Structures are given as structure tokens and as C-alpha cells.
Amino acid sequence: MLAKDRIILALDVDTKEEALTLVEKLRGHVGLFKVGMQLFTVAGPEIVNHIRDSGGSVFIDLKFHDIPNTVSESGRTVTRLGCAMFTVHAAGGIRMLRTLAEAVKDEASVLNIKPPLVLAVTVLTSINQQILKEDLFIDGMSVQDVAVKWACLAKDAGLCGVVCSPLETAAIRAACGHEFKLVTPGIRPKWALKNDQMRVTTPAQAIKLGADYIVIGRAITRAEDPISAALKITEELEEVEGELDVK
Ligand code: C5P
After folding, report:
1. From ligand 1's centre to the CA of 244, what distance in Å?
2. Based on the number of CB atoms within 10 Å of its own CB, is 214 exposed (0-12), middle (13-18) or buried (19 or more)?
3. 161: domain range?
4. Cβ neighbours of residue 32 under 8 Å, at least 6 residues apart?
5. Cβ atoms within 10 Å, residue 24
């Protein structure tokens, strides 16, 4: 895989026009474009079609969490949209995850297309030990232990990988093996602002720690020159190529 293909650009903007301007500018410099709730709720499935029509690959990050039937039918619709990856919450339980994995496989085979990677969101990076205990009522386990357990649940259900903190990648990699895809947000190059992200790593650190893909938003989209920011990150990733090659 080329280093630039490991970069997932988060299109966290409010309008189709802003999103497509970024896609136009950065298409050749990143691997995928992430359409999350903010953009999808204003621009809808159309934005996915637009990005695909202009040659971009799409990660639909809607983090499904509902009963098995609703989630698996939604998995079929995003598969029909032709995205390369999408997300679901591992906390929905194994029945929901398994039903979803089977539905996506089935839908892709009916359409005769490559199925999208279904990724489970483990513990959100905004959740710390205290919130886990006081708000989610999960006591006696560390955030990392819960993330690893949910990653294993996702793997058992037939999912392709997880979204996790770069700081949890080593433990999840050890538990789930090398084929399992690890996607990590919370990435900040040394030269970028931290914004509201607390626990961050640099792009190179994330890949060294075992991530397959890194999600980057503002460090590129709000840079004075987004293309040169993307190129700088790619260079940084290429520097750890030795480690990338063995994966
Ligand atoms: O701008 P920035 O690089 O912080 O954007 C990070 C992206 O990753 C956002 O789209 C955010 O929703 C997403 N994300 C995150 N932390 C998580 C899960 C997703 O920052 N735990």
C-alpha cells in the first residue's frame, strides 16, 4: 500500500460545496474521504455519489448502533452506495454485529462488488476511565481492556477491523492478529495544532504502533496549504516504510 493511501481525510464540513472543494484539491494526495454525521446529515447519500464520481473512495462514518435488523438493513444500503468502509458500534453486541456482517457480505455478492470493510468503533477516545465507570457503568476494567474485548467481539462476529485510539493498537493487534484492520483518529503531526484532541500521536507514531489507516481532519483541512500538509504527512509515513513493508 502506498503511504498516502493510509490517510483518511475527515470531511468535517457543513456543506456539499466545501466538501467537494476539498475532494477536488486532495484526491490525489490521500487514500479515502471520511463522510461523518456532520456532512451526511446535510448532504446525504448524494455526497457519497459525488465523491465516488470524482474518483475518490469513501468511508461512511455513521457509527450505527441499533437493533440487529435496522443495522443490517442500513449496512445493505451503505453497501449499495459503494463505500469502501463504514462504522458500527461494537457495544451493540455480537448478534447485531454478526447479522450486519452477514448482510453486507450477502448484499455485495448480489451486486457482484467487493464488500466494504465493516469497522467497529470500540471505546471512543473521548471516554476515559471515570466516564466508563460513572456513565457507562463498566467497572473493574480499564479502557484498554474494554477496547480489546470489543475488538475481539467484532472479530468473532466477522467484522474486518476497528476504529481505536493509537494508544490501544498494540494490544488490539496482539489480540486480533495482523489481518484485522486498525483505523486510528487522534492524529497530530508535530507541526499542527492539537485543537480539542487530548491523547494524540503523530502519523508516524500511529503507524509504528500498528495502525493500518490514520484519520486526519483539521491538520490538513485547516492548514494554510492543505496539499502541502498532506504531502508532509505522506513523507513522514514514508520514513517509517521499513515498518510498513513488514505488514
Ligand atoms: O480534525 P481531527 O483530525 O481531530 O478529526 C478527527 C476525526 O476523527 C473526526 O471526524 C472525528 O469525529 C473522528 N474521531 C475522533 N475520535 C474518535 C472517533 C472518531 O476524533 N474516537
Report:
1. 23
2. buried
3. 3-246
4. 5, 7, 8, 9, 56, 57, 58, 59, 84, 85, 213
5. 10
CATH code at position 198: 3.20.20.70
pLDDT for 85-143, tens place per residue? 999 999 999 999 999 999 999 999 999 999 999 999 999 888 889 999 999 999 999 99
Q: To the nearest whole number, what is the mean pLDDT of the chain?
A: 94
For the chain, the C-alpha Rg in angstroms (whole number) is 17
The distance from CA 54 to its chain's CA centroid, rounded to whole angstroms, is 21
Q: Are 223 and 192 in contact (CB under 8 A)?
A: yes
Q: Based on the structure, what is the number of domains in the chain?
A: 1
Query: Ligand 1: which residues within 6 Å by Cβ?
Result: 10, 12, 36, 124-125, 163, 185-186, 195, 197, 215-219
Structure confidence at residue 202 (pLDDT): 94
d(CA 9, CA 31): 8
Beta carbons of 233 and 219 less than 8 angstroms apart = yes
CA atoms within 13 A on the CB side of 196: 3
Q: Which cell numbers in the block locate residue 127? A: 471516554
Confidence of residue 12 (pLDDT cuts 50, 70, 90): very high
pTM of the model: 0.94
Catalytic residues: 63
